[in-house]
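F.,

This is the one I mentioned.
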């Protein structure tokens, strides 16, 4: 009997290599046919040379020398070619992940961590008490919040082509090379690749906020409208089957949000009209989906009254359907659905100001007052169908529609509002002065500010009358809050669920926001003998390391203000706090910021416990590790005990949105990993430190202080650092090239503190330094160990046992694996001052080497990605595409800064930024 053949790693990756080779060949053929042999030959020579660089057959200058002086008319198709190579490679990798997952499942292997199947196994093994589970999952919420990002500017046509190519490639793998179906599919793939090549990757016009709103909503049509309700139904069913008496998840656990159109911190383009537009566009997506589903249901649910008996509720609905019921007299479900569609048409028309597609004109139809009323009608049909044994039909499109309405309501997603505390102070001061309450509010000490604001929150008197004369700033802020009130009145309270206060440092910062909400009509002071209430959660955002350290004290002090505590009580004693990963990292470096966040969470959990409130944390993570990125599942498990407590929110932005949510399979996996992490962190003991917790925390206090000092020596204390940063990265061009609707800096200064985190991280990523994701960590670890084997063993033990420390080092490894100091040296050559260049780049190179040594010593892994071979393979595969894009960007930056400011050069730089962001997949 022949022994079964053991699959090797080479066997496992062969389909991926074949897919990349095929797609690369198709793209190459397209370029040769449409750009000519000279352009194709240069691209091919550069590609081959890049492979030789990867194999270390030639030096790193080889590709740079080939591209030096290349005509911009040739450079642009070259940049586009390598960007599309990367885009197609990403697509092939996504297919490979699904392929390998199917192999593992088919082999009967246990489900992988981060899947709900694996989580259910862990919960079953823990034998949890139903009452305890119900308490911990009260108000359970997992909310990914989509935010705008400058590199996420690809056009819808590009996304559509990607989606079609992905589906065609999946179908292609089902057929042998000789089968005619495969040849037909390959022809169709060639058409799509040609369409891609003929489509501009990015728009020439400056990205408007309306465009960003449309980009964010694109993912609902692509995947989220289907995937989110399905996961909600699946999770609810799975948990209720395990604890049938606990009535778990009375509301869907997965409810998405957005900042696009509501986040005005440093973005002057967010206005009252934009707030209304963002909410209306989101609502239109939801209404459009419901109406399309109702059209399809009318076609399919044609059961005859001669064969089935409906409930009285459905019979009553049917009476309102079709003005002329004769053609459908014996089809009660079809008539009932028609009546529902008529009412929903009226509802959508009233909300959106125009009749929607797939609607019905019926003057007698009454609008639905709430999504619950619509759901009641759909539930009535469901109950009736199940009563006659038609549950199999009810479980199809009708169930999907019911789950969608329950999840998305009439609003689709919650639109968060956000503004900086400094702006609130200016506006509130102006309002108080206009109303004659206080002429110089900014001069007041903190305790007097709190007393004054608390008193104002108690009175029903508005500060402004109809003829108030305000500055443009104050008038605009008041108008925006009033627009939010209009949105809530139209689409429901969930349409604007949160108001976030950036750079929150005090209780008065929180009460100033509350006063603005009162002036806009979103906060009601209540009756003279009744408590106040606010439909919007007031959410402090603690961003810098100092603010994170003081955050718990700020929250505790706010809860001691009676009027604020009453507002929290009116929200079910639920308080949300947002933690800023980006600014804390920019402020103190990677390790110090991560530990400051962990410490802040420990302190906030303690305050919440003592104050008797339920804490919800909102994690302001970016795509890259320098902004809190990394695997979401691991990040959730790395939270301290009690920090998740059944709910969390986190931001999603940049290239990771497309990577996570542009394709249904990927969207399902990523969303279920968020829920899996939330359930495990809430219901199981995942920290693993036990009695060693406090000593471990003290050790991390020490390491964080050392890391912050090392980071500060470079970023905050080295003379000329800002100049080095601006010259050795494309940060200036990020601002000058109008990437995104938001300015690159909060204020018109050259300070690192005022620079936004996205361009800070993105610029280091483009230059392949990745500095925010590791700098200072090596120095801290080496100093603390000091050559002592026992201390090194202590860190190795923490790496094995503590999810937080393991995740910190794992994420560091991921970002360092994408760094390339030989490429970074090319960017450093752009710095005019040779002495400054050598000094600062020397510091970076030394710390990079030090960090690599310490990572290897602690983890025992000689290779950075020894624990993540799939990512290692991915980085290895895309190296030949990164090399030309980086070298071309340096070449064009040099030309631009030498005075060649032609539109084609600027466009070339923008294209390289987009290509590198696509290649790195989490660059900002």
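My design for it:
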């Amino acid at each position: 009997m022949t022994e079964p053949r053991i699959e090797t790693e080479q066997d496992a990756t062969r389909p991926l290599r074949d897919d990349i080779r095929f797609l690369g060949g198709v793209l190459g053929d397209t370029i040769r046919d449409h750009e000519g042999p000279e352009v194709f030959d240069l691209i091919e020579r550069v590609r081959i040379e890049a492979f030789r660089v990867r194999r270390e057959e030639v030096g790193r200058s080889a590709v740079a020398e080939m591209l030096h002086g290349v005509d911009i008319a040739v450079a642009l198709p070259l940049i586009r070619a390598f960007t599309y190579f990367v885009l197609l490679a990403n697509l092939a990798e996504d297919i490979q992940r699904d392929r390998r997952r199917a192999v593992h499942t088919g082999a009967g292997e246990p489900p992988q961590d981060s899947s709900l199947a694996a989580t259910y196994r862990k919960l079953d093994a823990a034998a949890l008490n139903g009452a305890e589970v119900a308490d911990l999952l009260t108000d359970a919420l997992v909310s990914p919040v989509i935010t705008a990002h400058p590199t996420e500017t690809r056009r819808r046509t590009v996304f559509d082509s990607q989606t079609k190519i992905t589906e065609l490639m999946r179908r292609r793998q089902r057929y042998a090379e000789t089968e005619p179906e495969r040849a037909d599919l390959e022809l169709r793939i060639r058409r799509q690749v040609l369409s891609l090549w003929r489509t501009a990757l990015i728009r020439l016009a400056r990205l408007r906020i309306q465009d960003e709103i449309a980009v964010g909503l694109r993912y609902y049509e692509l995947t989220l409208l289907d995937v989110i309700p399905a996961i909600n139904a699946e999770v609810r069913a799975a948990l209720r089957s395990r604890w049938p008496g606990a009535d778990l998840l009375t509301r869907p656990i997965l409810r998405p949000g957005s900042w696009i159109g509501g986040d005005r911190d440093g973005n002057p383009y967010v206005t009252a009209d934009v707030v209304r537009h963002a909410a209306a566009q989101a609502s239109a997506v939801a209404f459009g989906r419901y109406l399309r589903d109702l059209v399809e249901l009318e076609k399919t649910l044609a059961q005859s009254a001669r064969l089935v008996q409906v409930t009285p509720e459905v019979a009553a609905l049917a009476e309102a359907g079709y003005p002329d019921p004769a053609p459908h007299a014996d089809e009660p479900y079809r008539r009932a659905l028609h009546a529902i569609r008529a009412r929903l048409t009226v509802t959508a028309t009233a909300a959106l100001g125009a009749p929607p597609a797939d609607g019905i004109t019926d003057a007698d139809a009454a609008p639905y007052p709430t999504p619950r009323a619509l759901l009641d009608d759909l539930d009535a049909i469901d109950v009736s169908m199940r009563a006659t044994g038609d549950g199999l039909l009810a479980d199809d499109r009708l169930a999907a529609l019911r789950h969608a309405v329950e999840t998305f309501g009439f609003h689709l997603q919650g639109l968060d509002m956000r503004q900086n505390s400094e702006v609130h102070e200016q506006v509130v001061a102006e309002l108080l002065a206009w109303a004659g309450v206080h002429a110089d509010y900014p001069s007041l000490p903190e305790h007097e500010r709190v007393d004054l604001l608390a008193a104002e929150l108690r009175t029903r008197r508005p500060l402004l009358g109809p003829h108030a004369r305000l500055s443009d700033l104050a008038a605009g802020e008041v108008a925006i809050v009033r627009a939010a009130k209009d949105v809530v009145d139209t689409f429901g309270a969930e349409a604007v669920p949160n108001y976030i206060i950036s750079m929150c440092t005090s209780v008065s910062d929180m009460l100033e926001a509350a006063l603005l909400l009162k002036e806009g009509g979103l906060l009601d002071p209540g009756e003279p003998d009744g408590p106040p209430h606010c439909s919007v959660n007031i959410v402090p955002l603690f961003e810098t390391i100092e603010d994170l350290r003081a955050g718990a004290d700020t929250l505790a002090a706010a809860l001691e203000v009676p009027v604020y505590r009453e507002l929290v009580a009116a929200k079910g004693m639920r308080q949300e706090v947002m933690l800023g990963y980006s600014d804390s990292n920019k402020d103190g470096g990677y390790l110090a910021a991560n530990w400051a966040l962990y410490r802040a969470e420990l302190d906030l959990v303690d305050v919440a416990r003592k104050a008797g409130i339920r804490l919800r944390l909102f994690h302001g993570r970016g795509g890259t590790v320098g902004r809190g990125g990394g695997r979401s599942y691991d990040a959730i498990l790395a939270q301290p005990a009690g920090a998740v407590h059944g709910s969390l929110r986190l931001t999603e932005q940049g290239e990771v949105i497309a990577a996570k949510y542009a394709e249904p399979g990927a969207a399902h996996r990523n969303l279920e990993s968020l829920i899996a992490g939330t359930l495990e962190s809430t219901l199981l003991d995942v920290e693993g430190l036990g009695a060693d917790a406090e000593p471990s925390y003290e050790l991390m206090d020490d390491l964080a202080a050392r890391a912050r000092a090392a980071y500060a020596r470079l970023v905050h204390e080295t003379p000329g650092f800002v100049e080095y940063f601006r010259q050795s990265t494309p940060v200036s061009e990020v601002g000058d090239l109008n990437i995104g609707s938001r300015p690159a800096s909060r204020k018109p200064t050259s300070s690192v503190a005022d620079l936004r985190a996205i361009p800070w991280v993105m610029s280091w990523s483009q230059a392949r330094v990745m500095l925010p994701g590791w700098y200072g960590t090596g120095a801290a670890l080496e100093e603390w160990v000091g050559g002592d084997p026992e201390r090194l063993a202590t860190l190795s033990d923490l790496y094995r046992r503590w999810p937080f420390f393991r995740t910190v080092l794992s994420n560091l490894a991921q970002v360092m694996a994408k760094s390339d100091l030989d490429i970074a040296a090319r960017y450093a050559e752009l710095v005019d001052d040779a002495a400054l260049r050598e000094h600062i780049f020397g510091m970076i190179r030394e710390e990079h080497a030090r960090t690599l040594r310490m990572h290897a010593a602690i983890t025992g892994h000689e290779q950075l990605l020894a624990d993540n071979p799939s990512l290692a393979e991915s980085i290895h595969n895309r190296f030949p595409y990164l090399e030309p894009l980086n070298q071309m960007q340096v070449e064009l930056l040099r030309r631009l800064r030498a005075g060649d400011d032609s539109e084609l050069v600027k466009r070339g730089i923008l294209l390289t930024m987009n290509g590198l962001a696509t290649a790195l997949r989490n660059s900002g």
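DSSP finds 36 helices and eleven strands in the chain.

Talk soon.
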